[in-house]
Specification:
The complex is a heterodimer of chains A (267) and B (292). Chain A has helices at 49-56, 82-88, 110-122, 126-139, 145-148, 158-170, 188-205, 216-222, 240-245, 250-258, and strands at 7-18, 21-33, 38-42, 64-72, 75-76, 93-96, 176-180, 208-213, 225-230, 233-239. Chain A has 267 residues and is an alpha/beta fold. Chain B is mainly α. The chains are: A alpha/beta (267), B mainly alpha (292).
Chain lengths: 267, 292
């Protein structure tokens, strides 16, 4: 599996310096992601799910340090210089954030925020980038895309903004997309639509998807393999049916028990 | 309702203009500033009387409508209206240029320090602290004695060099706050480098702060210039500025109040207008302010 993995994380640990103390957020995190595979990362708040992948992307807060290795397309991402990361981020790895209300720059038209990425990475002219951006926004089923592209984030609803975020993450057709709680901030009906959109785009583009969530329902619908995290470690990693039907680790079992609805019915 | 919303959503500047237009007081104040600027630019040329020509027939003449000097003359018989217009021109030029220089330096310094963080930030902000702790009047006096007294260029450099410290601090603070927002993280996650981040994602977000400060800074600079001129360090006779006109007027306050009231009234009017417009601009330019 590791031969042709898109992303290969080995022994990753993340530590934060807080008031002179070292707080370990992630330890001994190893995971490889195959092309076209969707891996769910599950765990409670503070389990280190997000921090592990922020470390991979080189986006840790200033007081955080990552150790270990994360290889993406033969490039080492941990401790890579900023300029090298800037060429990969957005172009080869897309990222979708949890809160679409605050993740878009407020004073830029949403169409231009998609276009910015295409100008930067694909070397398109602003005019061509805007045209491509509009195609992308149509692709993510933003209603009335042509008009919406010329609006500012505050004029769009949460669901529409998350569609814009997805358009930004996928604009350069990256082989890997990391979605950090992509539906947590949305209401339930919109959640289902966004997940269906992600599933469709993933199938169509054959991209790998890392789905970070605390919602087992989300994982059940989309992921092929699941890694369960607890206190900064992966405690169990198996394919989704095994995890949901026959979890071996006691933490996974308790996680399933506290899920508001029986995960089994969702499969 | 949706349609309504859509129509209101024109360009950013058009929306800002629409919001600004609703503020009648600000429009009035803005119009007054334009009139004062035009008068200050053209007035001295249109008038037959020069700012330094003396009228021996009317020394310290009080204001008289329909007379030769409708706002009166000073104790040397110079027309107060022409001198005030000319003084306004000098004060405005110094105010605008000095604010522009201090804004450019301050915004660059503040955003770079704030966004870089760490040691760069420390070094840059300590430099600001050191400059802050020097008494600026002292710096200005040294500059004035080193270079030609009353040279407008020196005056303007001196004022601008002192003025950027505050805006640098304000901008740095805002940049620190913006740096932690999710949209900056999201922009980093799509590979936006530091230069583009500052220019496209951070500085435009500071527009409200910068404009609000600028409209405060312009009157501040004018006031500072007036203060220096009042002390005799700024613009030198026979060139008038609002400051030395007020200084002259203050000496004759008991016998000829108009010599003080005319330039002082102009200064107050100008400063109040700038403050009103600044306040309105800040509200209008905030993109999060929805068109209601």
């Amino acid at each position: 599996m590791s031969e042709n993995a898109v992303l290969e994380v080995e022994n990753l640990s993340v530590r934060f310096a807080v008031a002179g103390q070292q707080i370990t957020s992630v330890s001994d995190f190893s995971l490889s992601i195959a092309p076209g595979e969707c891996v769910g990362i599950v765990g409670e708040s503070g389990a280190g799910k997000s921090q592990a992948f922020l470390a991979v992307m080189g986006l840790l807060a200033a007081n955080g340090r990552a150790h270990g290795s994360a290889r993406f397309e033969a490039a080492e991402l941990i401790d890579a210089p900023g300029a090298a990361l800037d060429r990969i981020r957005g172009a080869r790895i897309g990222m979708i954030f949890q809160n679409p209300m605050t993740s878009l720059t407020p004073h830029l038209k949403v169409g231009d925020q998609v276009a910015e990425l295409l100008v930067r990475h694909a070397g398109l002219s602003l005019r061509a980038a805007r045209r491509r951006a509009l195609e992308m926004l149509t692709k993510v089923q933003l209603p009335d895309a042509e008009r919406r592209a010329r609006q500012y984030p505050h004029e769009l609803s949460g669901g529409m903004r998350q569609r814009v975020m997805i358009a930004i993450a996928l604009a350069c057709d990256p082989p890997l997309v990391i979605a950090d709680e992509p539906t947590t901030a949305l209401d339930v009906t919109i959640q289902a639509q966004i997940l269906a959109l992600l599933a469709e785009l993933k199938r169509e583009r054959r991209m790998s998807l890392v789905l970070i969530t605390h919602d087992l329902g989300v994982v059940a619908g989309l992921a092929e393999r699941v890694a369960v995290m607890c206190a900064g470690r992966i405690v169990e990693c198996a394919d989704v049916t095994t995890i949901l039907r026959a979890p071996t680790h006691p933490y996974t079992q308790s996680l399933l028990r506290v899920a508001p609805h029986s995960a089994g019915t969702d499969i | 309702m949706l349609e309504e919303h859509g129509r209101a959503a024109g360009g950013f500047w058009r929306q800002a203009w629409q919001r600004l237009r609703r503020n009648r007081l600000a429009l009035f104040a803005g119009g007054l500033i334009v009139v004062v600027i035009l008068a200050a630019l053209m007035g001295p040329h249109l008038s037959a009387v020069r700012y330094d020509s003396l009228d021996w027939e009317a020394i310290a003449a009080p204001p008289k409508l329909g007379g030769a000097h409708w706002l009166g003359t000073d104790r040397l018989g110079r027309d107060l209206f022409v001198r005030t217009l000319y003084g306004l021109r000098i004060s405005l030029v110094i105010g605008l240029l000095a604010s522009a220089v201090s804004l450019i330096i301050g915004v660059l310094w503040g955003t770079i320090a704030g966004y870089s963080g760490g040691r760069t930030d420390e070094l840059m902000m300590r430099a600001v602290d050191v400059l802050y702790s020097l008494p600026y009047l002292f710096i200005v006096i040294i500059l004035m004695t080193l270079f030609a007294r009353g040279s407008l260029i020196v005056l303007f450099v001196a004022i601008g060099a002192v003025g950027w410290l505050t805006i640098a601090r304000i901008v740095r603070g805002q940049t620190l706050a913006l740096k932690r927002t999710e949209f900056v993280d999201a922009a980093r996650a799509i590979g936006v480098g530091p230069g583009a981040m500052l220019w496209r994602h951070i500085v435009p977000n500071l527009a409200g702060t910068i404009i609000a400060y600028a409209t405060l800074a312009i009157p501040q600079m004018i006031l500072f210039e007036s203060f220096l001129s009042f002390l005799g360090l700024g613009v030198q006779e026979p060139l008038p500025s609002l400051g030395n006109l007020i200084n002259d007027g203050a000496r004759e306050m008991q016998s000829a109040a108009w010599m003080l009231l005319v330039p002082a009234g102009s200064l107050v009017l100008l400063l109040v207008c700038f403050s009103i417009v600044g306040d309105a601009l800040r509200d209008a330019l905030d993109p999060r302010e929805r068109p209601s």
